[in-house]
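Ticket #4471: structure export looks truncated?
Reporter: QA, pipeline team
Priority: medium

Steps to reproduce: submit the single chain below to the structure queue and open the exported record.
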Amino acid sequence: MTQTKIQIFMMILVALGACVFACSGGKRRINQYWTRNCTGGEWRKQFPQASKDAIREFLECFVRGFAFSSKKRLKFNPNDKIMDVYRALYPAEGWPDVLELETFSILLEKKYRLGLASVINDDLTLGQLFQMTIETKSQPVR
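Actual output as written to the record:
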């Protein structure tokens, strides 16, 4: 295949994915998070020993992994299940994603030396994962 044909093929795939996303209600599902008020108080209540900066740094890993704006990091609360957020983006099973979970896993490994693959399951919440980062007691690598 020529470079031009590959580019056209990729644009068609992206357009098709966008259509499926729009038709399947994905945008509506992710909006449940965007309409929330700041959840910083919920994080501080559940993790009083953690600094605001530590909470924000963890959430920054999450939003960067999922390619969300940094401004959205405090839209997620400790009880949000990671896979629910993922499924809000990709409600149709079997469609290609843009490797959000893999990217988040790489960022967690770099910052906290914690592999997501070894702990992820359908019920894992952001709060549970944050607790694991605290328990590693390793200083974040910058």
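Status: closed, not a bug. The export was complete when the record was re-opened. Leaving a note from the reviewer for reference: Residues 25-135 form one domain.
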